[in-house]
Structures are given as structure tokens and as C-alpha cells.
Amino acid sequence: MNWAVVGVGNIANVFMKAIQHIPDVKVLAAYGRNREKLDAFCDKWNIKERYTDYEQLYKQSSVSVIYLATPHIVHFEHTMSALEHGKHVLCEKPMAMSFEETEALVYAARKNKVFLMEAMWTRFFPINKWLMEFIRSEEFGKPVNVNADFSFEYPYDKDYRFFRRDLGGGCMRSAGIYPLAYACMVFGCLPDEIKAIAQMKNEVDLRTAALFRFPKDCTAEIYTGFQGESQCMANIAFEKGTVVIPEFIHPDTAIIKPCGGEEKRISLLYEEPGLQFEIEHAEDCIRMGKKESPIMPLNESIGIARAIDLVYEQVRG
Ligand SMILES: NC(=O)c1ccc[n+]([C@@H]2O[C@H](COP(=O)([O-])OP(=O)(O)OC[C@H]3O[C@@H](n4cnc5c(N)ncnc54)[C@H](OP(=O)(O)O)[C@@H]3O)[C@@H](O)[C@H]2O)c1
Fold first, then answer.
1. Which of 14, 82, 146, 180 is spaced 20 to 30 Å from 245 by Cα?
2. Domain count, the chain
3. For a substitution probing ligand 1, which of 6, 11, 76, 180 has the most ligand atoms within 8 Å of its CB?
4. Quick count: other Cβ atoms within 10 Å of Cβ 138?
5. Ligand 1 atom at minimum distance from 119 CA
6. How far out from the chain centre does Cα 49 lie?
């Protein structure tokens, strides 16, 4: 299938590395707002069609799928336009800046009968497939609590997008989306009660801790931040045991322990960078004529966006 990359920064380069594992994926076009950076990216990855206007790309290029890799503040306009031009879209997380924007994108994808998926790469690693089968087996009973963290030290820079509200800054939407989406995956539903606190600077959360109640008495504790490294661990408490997923964002291992029993380690290794699994999944869905992913469904993206909005309502006061 023929793809275009919109945005030529960090994650776009990871995407290009990942597709070296997938012979069917061809990137024919790219958009970048800066001509020099666009040319450097396209020269590096041997991409012929180059656009500094994304609408021109959507109008002129024959590609059928867009990988949307610009910062989230512009995901809505870049994705909406792609959908309106009949392109399928794999959109980096978070899909948009609010519940309303996310819902509007989902509506546009359905109206235009094209595929849309939030690029929650975590869900597509082999060990997560194993985890979901393990949960379905009920070997340890039902999962009741998820405790997950994703925090890294990023030196404060008042001009960088992480720290500017007008550029979509804040750790909950950028990084906290991972542990929240992980809890939603484990429980197979969305939270219905939220309590959050945050360390704020210039209206942007530098560290956020939040508690979530899920249906059927399930709970989650999420910690995220741009200040201070955390282990990036998902601890899942089951009725009859525990499962720990180290590096749960891009995992290859599960450590399982039944109550009172022996610990066991399961590893399903993968080749770096790991984005290839979500890309292959998106291609498979599109080939089969699906308009959304069963693993990262659109209603879940809408629900996660709503939960993040509620966190921000609480921490901004
Ligand atoms: N899945 C993952 O693990 C992962 C990892 C990192 C990021 N992400 C997500 O991917 C997205 C991009 O992150 P990144 O780290 O790749 O960012 P990045 O390195 O800053 O690259 C963003 C690209 O978009 C361009 N851009 C920035 N602002 C723009 C605007 N207003 N209009 C048009 N183009 C604009 C940048 O151009 P300039 O160079 O000219 O600024 C650059 O080409 C974010 O939403 C992020 O949450 C996902």
C-alpha cells in the first residue's frame, strides 16, 4: 500500500525505520513545513514527492494512507483535511486536543468511509497479545487494579511544546495517555470516575497523578511526568495473582505470579523499533475494508480524550 508521512520529525524517522520490516508499505510522499528539513528527510529515506502544503499532498498525491506525525496541536486540522480528501489515516497519539475534536474526526472518518486509528503502538506488541489472551483465560480471575507510570526527565524549556499550553503542552495528554490507555485495554472499558492532582507551571502539568474508577469495581492509578524518571511499569492486580509488564510502552516481557505461587517470566522479543506491529495492523485493517481497528477502536479514542479533558478540568481548576 502507498503511504505519505505528514510531519518529518522524531517519530516520522522511527516510522521510516519500522517500515523497513514491512515490504508492502511504500512511502511515496512527505509533508514538512520547513523545506530544508523536508528535503533532508526525503533524501535520507528516498522519498520523491515533497510538499510544504499538506492540502496539496492530499489533493495531488495518489497515496491512500497518511501517517500523521505532526504535534498534537495540529492533528485535528491535518487529519480532518486528510479524511475529507478520502485518505485513510494512522494518527499519532493523542489523536486530537479534546473530546470534541476527537469525536469530530471519528464522525468525519465514518462519513467519508475511510479508516482512522490512533497510533497507540503499545497495544500491538506480541506480549500484549499474550496478555489479552491471558486476561480472557481468567487463569488469575479478573484484573481489578492497574498501577502504571510513564515519566521521564525533560529539561525545562519555556519555549518547547511540552511546556507551552498554546502548543498543546502538558504531560497527561502527551505521556499519561499511555498508562491510561493501558488500563482501558486491560479492563476493556473506559473510566467513569476520576480524581487528579498535578504539579503545574504556566498552566501546563509537569507531573500528574490520577486515580480512575472503572465499571465493575475496577480501579487504576496513573502517574506521568516530564520531571523525574519513572520505571515505566504496569502492575496488574488480579483476583488470584499479579502480572507485571516492565517497559509497558514497548514491552517484551510479562512477570506473572499466582497468589502464594512461583514467579514466572514470559518473553516475546521483537526487532526494533517496534512501530511495525501497529503499521502492519493498520494495513491489514485497510486491506480487509475495515474502517476502524478492533484493537484500538475509535470509541475508545473518544473516551480516552474525554477522560484526559476531565483530568485537565480538575488540575487547572
Ligand atoms: N508513538 C510514540 O512513541 C511517539 C513518540 C514521540 C512522539 N509521538 C507523537 O508524535 C507527534 C509528533 O512528535 P515528534 O516527537 O515526532 O515531534 P517533532 O520531532 O517536533 O516533529 C514534528 C513535525 O511536525 C512539524 N510541525 C511542528 N509544528 C507544526 C505545525 N504547527 N504545522 C505543521 N507542521 C508542524 C515539525 O516541523 P519543524 O521541525 O519545522 O518544527 C516536524 O516536522 C506528537 O503528537 C507526539 O505525541 C509519538
1. 14
2. 2
3. 11
4. 12
5. 1
6. 27
Strand partners, 68: 6, 91
Statement: residue 317 has pLDDT above 90: no
The whole-number pLDDT of residue 86 equals: 98
Ligand 1 neighbours by CB, cut-off 6 Å: 7-12, 32-34, 37, 69-72, 74, 92-93, 119, 121, 174
What residue's CA is closest to ligand 1, atom 26?
70
Asked if the structure places residue 291 within a domain, the reply is: no
Full residue range of the structural domain in which residue 76 is found: 2-118
Handedness of CA 273, 72, 105, 213 (dihedral sign): positive
Q: Are residues 137 and 207 in the same domain?
A: yes
pLDDT at 153: 98
Comparing CA positions, the residue from 316, 153, 150, 312 lying closest to residue 226 is 153
Residue 301 has pLDDT above 90, yes or no: yes
- Which of 248, 269, 290 is where one domain is finished? 269
